[in-house]
Amino acid sequence: MHKKSAHPARKSSPGERKDVLFRVTEEVSLMEFLIAQLPSKSRDNIKSLLRNKQVWVGDQIVSQFNHQLLPGQMVRISGSRSRAEKKFAEFTIVFEDDSLIVIDKSAGLLSIATGSDNTHNAFRMLSDYVKTQDPKNKIFIVHRLDRETSGLMVYAKNEEVKKLLQENWNTEETQKCYVALVEGQLEKQEGTIVSYLFEDKVFRVHSSQNPNKGLKAITNYRVLESNANFSLLQVELKTGRKNQIRVHLQEIGHSIVGDKKYGAVSSPIRRLGLHAQQLRFVHPVSGEKLHFETKVPSVFHSLLKRKYK
Question: Fewer CB near the last or first residue (10 Å), C or N of the chain?
């Protein structure tokens, strides 16, 4: 029989249902642990918590009941189901609290307004959403994804949180991993691309080895799978420059599929083959380490399974 941890639950704001925190003392499955720690809940109640993404192990949401726990790990039960996940037409809110919102954006949706489109974008939709909770609420953009890039994005709920997140955006505390579907097969299965990026008058980004000509950009890549025509890469950004991944992959001769602006000659999936898959950062208010991960778009895998003559 597992004993409840004496570790206190985190403080919550007025009207918010409290989270509950438990410490793991022995190796055990997640379901067995939760049954012991939550004797007032039925097995179906516990499955509902898992299904609604209210169970955290360390800094990750876990929904598998047979997930194996190890001594020393912390298990948190979120008191709010409503903030676990909300689906909209072109994005999903995967995390929300009083300070920030993390979304999974679809390809084709702008991160924020442009001169020609100031209504159909994630920023405007999220702004309308938070105002339904309180008309005084605001939203602030922390970073951007290109319109045709899908995946994880963070928006702040106040200027102070925005500032704190941006200050740490290019530090070791923040890790940004993408998957990129590129043209051709790479000779090297992994590598690092380092150059200096600068933008011209028509907003096209260029790469140079001259440190006086631009901002330093560092991109790590690793091949996940490939066929005769295309490769799927895991790409980790060490810096966050505009169009960095697109320019760097063009530079090594393997442009992202669908990226005509940066050298692609094919568009087999009718979108840019780039997806922001993983994001890790430290919560600027609570200090908690957060980790989010989304599925690789199925169309990426489908292209690699196609047979070519």
Answer: C
